[in-house]
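Blinded run. Sample ID left blank on purpose so nobody reads anything into the name before looking at the predicted structure. Input follows.
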Amino acid sequence: MRTLLVLRGAPGCGKSTWVEKNGLLPYTLCPDTLRIMCSSRELQADGRFSIARNNATEKQTWKIIMDLLEYRMSRGELTVLDATASKTKDIQQYKELAEQYRYRTYVVDFTDVSLETCLAQNKQRHPDKWVPEESIRNIYARFANQPVPSRVEVIKPDEIEKILEKPIDLSQYRKVVFVGDIHGCYDTLMQYADFREGLKDDVAYIFTGDYIDRGNQNAEVMHFLFSIMDKPNVCFLEGNHERWIRDYGNNAPAASREFELKTKLQLEAGNFTDKQARMFYRKVRQFSHFNWNGLEVLACHGGVPHINTNLIYMPTQAFIQGVGTYAEYQTIADTWMSETKENQFLVHGHRNTEKDPVQIADRVFNLEGGVEFGGSLRIAELEFVGRYPEYGITEEGDRIPVGTNVMYKWNTVELADCQPVTEDLNTEQRPVETVEDAVAYLRNNKFVVEKPLGDDISSFNFSRDAFYSANWNRQTILARGLFIDTKNNKIMARSYEKFFKINEVRETELAALKARLQFPVRAFVKENGFLAIVSYDYNKDDLFIASKSTNKGDYVNYIKEQLAPYYERILNRLRYYYECNAPMTFVFECIDVEHDPHIIKYDKSKVVLLDAIYNTLNFETASYEDLKHLAGQIDCPVKEVAYTVKTWEDFRNIYMEAQDEEYKYNGDYVEGFVFVDANGFMTKCKTGYYNFWKFMRGVADITLKCGHYRRTGALQTPMSNNFYGFCKKCFDEDRRTETKDYPYKTDIISLRDRFLNT
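Blinded prediction complete.
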């Protein structure tokens, strides 16, 4: 929790003892501990050793302390500074960080301990803790003349209860309303009557965070929340997206491409100012912990498993991001049910990959409904349904009321009908209706590379910058193996548009996929080779064959070699489609075991027909049934349907199982799967086996060149460490041959076979 305790007192006054007594040692930064780490003890004139306090050591010590303090504050962790804080500036030095990270600062005052006591107790301290008496006298003398800044609250050592978190009482409200993740969906929010018609004074409203991003009405949402933020019955909790509101308010760039390219522009266009953002962010809280007529409720954004310890000891990150992984919300709920009392309830948002109901346990409510993906805005209401009295019996036998029990209920509401957000993040979108338009726009896009190939044919592909900065929009997604006849404004050939792995971008996060996928979904085996792009060259009455961005080079020659048995049949088919005014591109996976081994081992080279793509700007393919028929006509293998998935549960299970490093499909290791839903939406995943050996390929490449791999911390399994040792041995063997050429194949398949057979 965002609390800073600065201890103030001379050496020997009992600060360290107080820290240990109150269980605060895990939260404490102690300069003496760091001084010993920075410099060995110094020998004094009287023959004693003491902690080094020279200028160089002090400078280094306090540099480390301030770095550690800022890191802890960035996580919102309770922090104790066990120093003397004898000077006013010693306390003021934390002011800027406290304001930046919204910390409340307390000084724990030990200055009432007499100088004589401090001196006497100093003599009994361990040599590592002993301080020269003159230093203690000087420190003690400062307390009277250098006061604590007036903005800082001072407490005595026996008043620690003052800073401990305690639940507030909301029993004066007839109802408590909890609002889940809004994510810029204003129209959906207004479906709730109290927000549309006006808040009720006898109802408490708690918003559980994530008010912006992803949706299209971020400015409208923020203006509404700003308009109600000063009401005493309204509470805003901090979600993981509110950090961008903080950055926006401070005119600092947000570390979020989505916020910078979309949300920020909406806020600016909607006249939601930086000043308003600062004012709003001051209002958000880490959690809401309250009592309500006999119930104890904790509301936060991410969800925590219990409240068995005082909440001040829990880092703010736990409340905002939640405890455990994103997908462990059910585990959180189960733990809460087993470790908390019957009257304790948890309400949170943030995570829900399974679209479970609002009430996922008897006393746990999950308010993440994926509203921005076309799901629902979830609201939970806590209210009375009635009361009944309890009676006691006096010694005379009279019945007297001794209390009132509350009958209550939780009502859950899901406000749906939000339009899912699927448009590109880049705001500079222009309609592309013709090939001529496309060429003009692609040429003006700094993230698209044009490569002239001769005969007025150019290839267009997204740049490395687009890939590494994830600058995906309609143009960069289109520019993937796109070949255009710029003279006649015709598409000569085209490949797939760029599509993404599961969890690679927002649209393919599991929560988004669950809202988006239309079943049934086909899962195709992803072959491990390189793409071959084949179409009809109408200028030469021949095949146009390309790989990636070129129709020349070794890889094109490899393709031609593999396609030789099918060449005439492919040409006849593509010529036929062109004459029928339905020109197509055949996309193959080319597996070449001799020239281009990848990760997955194949017995022989082959090509596999992946898709027949129409040569149009809008991505459209032949149906799988037509593709199989076509493959039969050219007598070529066609991509394999591994699964036909009919439910979300089956889809997720396939994905999760594939992440295991030992996963096999029909007894064989595979690269992964390409998923295509009923509407043609595509995503993909790689298997754990493929990912592991792709990483180890990089390790092998470096080790065989340099003899070692610097980032050995990434080798986290016995297999990875043993393979690394094998590669080092290979390097040593090669050095002994005194030749520049390796005496063995160094592709990962050959290396892996040698390693496993060793």
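Unblinding after everyone has recorded impressions. Residues 422-431 have pLDDT under 50 and may be disordered.
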